[in-house]
Amino acid sequence: MSKFVKIFLYVVLLSNMAFSQNSGFGSLSSDRTEPVEFSSDRLVFNQEENLAELFDGVKIIQGATVLSAEYVKATYSKTNKLEKIFAERNIELKSNQDIARADKAVYSLTGNSISLTGNAQLIQGANNIMADQILINTETGLTQLVGSVKTVISPSTN
After folding, report:
1. Residue 158: inside a domain
2. 118 is in which domain, residue-wise?
3. For residue 32, what is the domain's CATH number?
4. pLDDT 10s per residue in the chain (158 long)?
5. Which terminus of the chain has fewer Cβ atoms in its 10 Å neighbourhood, N or C?
């Protein structure tokens, strides 16, 4: 690959990353103050351990953001404040037009973060980025991709 092509791809990638960081992942930063709604085929609630487990067809909705999975464990404080959500199997996080997929996800409501690991993939429009881990700050929407990052940028059709 010529030096010119490498520089061009680097500039395009940086401009896309800057756009992604400025606008954030979907509407996460504004949705984080919305109520959280859970649905699933089965729920096991353990008040002594301050946790709830949801099985099969799990959907967690907060504003315009939807997290889907096959299994979710939610932990909460002694004052019933939701603290963390652990999701496994067929994870898909949708927020507006942005989509993230992975094998596992941890949503820390107290830490304002979402971590997606295992076959992590970020889709924004026709662009696709794969990495070992996707880290999203829910307060700012800043998205970081870490480890073995592979980017596929589709040319603009305008």
Report:
1. no
2. 3-152
3. 2.60.450.10
4. 444 434 434 434 443 443 343 456 777 777 778 888 889 999 999 989 999 999 999 998 888 889 999 999 999 998 888 899 999 999 999 988 889 999 999 999 889 899 999 999 999 888 889 999 999 888 888 888 899 889 888 776 55
5. C
